[in-house]
Amino acid sequence: MVRIANAHKVPLHPISCGCNWGLGSRLPVFDDVVIVDLGRMNRIREVNVPGHYALVEPGVTQRQLYEHLQEQKLPLMFNVTGSALSTSLIGNALERGIGYFSSRAEALSGLEVVLGNGQLLRTGFGHFADAKTTYLYKYGVGPSLDGLFQQSNFGVVTAAAVDLIPQCEAHMAVVARIHEEDQLAAMVDAFADLRRRDILRTVVHIANRERTQIAMAPQIYRRLRAEYGSDDGSLRVLAGKILEQEGFGPWSAVGGMLGTRGQLAAARSEIRRALRGKARVMFMTDGLLKLGKSVCGKLSRFAWFRRKQALLAAVEPLYGMAKGVPSDAAMDSVYWPLGEVPAVPGLNPDQGRCGMLYCVPFLPADGEITRKAMEHTERVFRKYNFTPYVTLNMIDGKSLECVINLAFDRNEPSRIAAAHACNDELTEDFIRQGFIPYRVGPQSMSSIVTAGDSFWKTVRELKKVLDPNNIISPGRYNLP
């Protein structure tokens, strides 16, 4: 197909499943481009237990891989994201998405790529006949080419290996909450220290009150509605009140922990010590969740325990993701800001009126810088009458992926214009401050790809070698 496109000079825009919501979904940068949907290339070619990897095609989704591992009873899990079950593993990894355990880009190896010139390339050791360690040592011999195909337009990735995680003896989630806005800096610094000392080894997700509300309130609402049978508008308010009563203040954090029981016991002590006086801390385990559900079920005739049941229904999917169980639950957060709750979870938000845009700058893992960045975000959003829904993902002890979500009604042209103006202003402000977004949508490509930059000139020269006719996704993370 790529060779035919070259012969006829027809540009192509490959997508895995088209679920890059808030950052362009399946849209190319320019018009008059043919969309190449790879969603039906969905084979799991191999799962290797000793090497803990899965060789998958771009259409393989979180749901598909999770169900395969469960059906085969394999002692493995993978780095899930909070997005939908229907999202592509390879597509998200090539965009350098961040999961609940680490960056997904680091977990790819042995890429199979159809270059823009129509040639087939295999990276690492993959281009050697009968190579046995292609997916065990990603670099191979010679220059490492894997990174060329992340956030680029040099070719079409048709398969890659995704690192899996061996099941551990024990797992646990830490939940930390603060009651005052001015405690954010201290909590960020405490978690950064824990990450630097390797006490916490997975991503810590720190969400503001508004983000926590839209993530958890829909699940509480669903439970309340099932209990009451109808809703006169008061159940949405009640769902929010339940979260407030449980101590979900201006910022809350969650992080997963894996290891032996002894390792987790030691980590628990260190975490309590590090966060003492900075945040209220609790630890979630399978046993604690099971006990809570059992007690609340037996005492559900009392309103207080029914509300606790509703809260546990909201907590369970988030806890599940912290131990490698993907879920559609978080997708309700797309609809909640506009007063909707889908009849069934997992719908495609592109098919409704609920719009969203993301601004995703990288920040240092520094509490004071983070506090100032959040204050500035609030000011810009107030200017356009929007609410910022923010998650700070601490991927290591040095940096934070700052995910700022803007929700708007796509049926109102004035709000569409305001949403883009708000997102553009905030993105440009962060760039001026030196905090560059690590992903952008097609409408924002020109804000980071500039003609005078020697980096982008070099990228364009590589494009001329690998895709001389500019067939693959013209203008995507590259000069036009």
Question: Secondary structure elements and their pairing?
Answer:
Layout lengths: L1 H7 L3 E4 L18 E4 L6 E5 L4 E4 L5 H10 L4 E2 L11 H6 L13 E8 L4 E3 L32 E9 L1 E2 L3 E9 L5 H13 L7 E5 H20 L5 H12 L5 E9 L1 H15 L4 E5 L1 H13 L4 H19 L10 H4 L18 E6 L2 E3 L2 H17 L5 E6 L4 E11 L3 H20 L12 H4 L5 H13 L14
Parallel strand pairs: 1-2
Antiparallel strand pairs: 3-4, 4-8, 5-9, 6-7, 6-8, 10-12, 10-13, 11-12, 11-16, 14-17, 15-17, 16-17
Helix pairs in contact: 4-7, 4-11, 5-6, 5-9, 8-9, 11-12
Textual characterization of the structure:
The two termini are 22 Å apart. The chain folds into 3 domains: 2-167, Uridine Diphospho-n-acetylenolpyruvylglucosamine Reductase, domain 3, CATH 3.30.465; 170-338, Vanillyl-alcohol Oxidase, Chain A, domain 3 (3-Layer(aba) Sandwich), CATH 3.40.462; 349-448, Vanillyl-alcohol Oxidase, Chain A, domain 3, CATH 3.40.462. It has 14 helices and 17 strands. The mean pLDDT is 94. With 480 residues, it is an alpha+beta fold. Strands 10, 11, 12, 13, 14, 15, 16 and 17 form an 8-stranded antiparallel β-sheet that branches.
Please state the second-level CATH architecture of the largest domain. Answer: 3-Layer(aba) Sandwich
How many beta-strand runs?
17
Estimate the helix proportion, in percent. Answer: 25-40%
**Low-pLDDT segments, ≥5 res:** none
Strand content: 15-25%
CATH fold description of the largest domain: Vanillyl-alcohol Oxidase, Chain A, domain 3
What is the H level of CATH, i.e. the homologous superfamily of the largest domain? FAD-linked oxidases, C-terminal domain
Please tell me the total number of domains: 3
CATH class of the largest domain: Alpha Beta
